[in-house]
Specification:
Arc Repressor Mutant, subunit A; Four Helix Bundle (Hemerythrin (Met), subunit A); 9 helices
């Protein structure tokens, strides 16, 4: 095997280990504040110890784990500072990104976005927050936010946003119940889309900021 092929194989192993770790984290098989060993991560992810050892510096740099002296590795704890920091970071990225998206997204894209949200809202009102409706709402919700960020075409921003999104999802899972949020979240998104379709940069950014502030307040138990 050439050096280049070997390096490529190692990168794939690291990415696979990262994907499996975050998947288990979001599935709540790892819980915030939990202490975990390298061997436990090997067993959980099914990845070799070498890949886990290479993964740890990345997880530490991203704030998903921290090393506690004499205790080991701890999954990120969802304290007030993390909640405030994660939502502030989100606001700083998504506000300007929304203004740009207003002028770059085509009419057909915005029409599809609106139709997807109205479908979820109509089903939620007709069927209630069934597991199927909740799953559809989750994917529609995060799909719009990811789409707005990815439309910037900036890989650095997209990667940073994805890391923060993992923290936001952990916070939301711990602090709020999606079954009570499907209707209000879809309505908030539709207000954003309405301003986008009107090509109202300031209005769309303001609606996005209001949406993120409400999400933060819900996570902080402030309504």
């Amino acid at each position: 095997m050439t050096v280049e092929a070997d390096n490529s194989s190692q990168r794939k192993q690291r990415e696979k280990a990262y994907d499996r770790f975050t998947r288990h984290l979001l599935a709540r098989e790892l819980t915030p504040g939990q202490f975990v060993s390298q061997r436990e991560l090997v067993a959980l992810t099914g990845m070799p110890l070498g890949a886990i050892r290479e993964l740890i510096p990345r997880l530490e740099a991203e704030g998903l784990i921290r090393t506690v002296p004499q205790r080991g590795m701890q999954i990120a704890n969802l304290d007030l500072n993390l909640i405030r920091d994660a939502y502030q970071f989100r606001l700083f990225l998504e506000g300007p990104a929304t203004r740009i998206y207003v002028n770059t997204a085509g009419d057909e894209v915005l029409s599809r976005l609106e139709a997807a949200h109205r479908l979820v809202l109509d089903r939620a009102l007709a069927e209630g927050p069934t597991p199927e409706v909740q799953a559809l709402a989750q994917s529609t919700d995060w799909g719009m936010h990811d789409q707005i960020i990815d439309a910037l075409g900036n890989e650095i921003i997209s990667k940073a946003y994805r890391v923060n999104s993992i923290k936001i999802r952990l916070i939301r899972d711990a602090a709020t119940r999606i079954d009570t949020l499907v209707v209000p979240v879809m309505e908030e998104h539709l207000r954003i889309i309405e301003r986008m379709r009107a090509r109202d940069e300031a209005g769309a950014e303001e609606a996005m900021a209001a949406h993120i502030h409400r999400a933060r307040n819900r996570a902080l138990g402030m309504g």
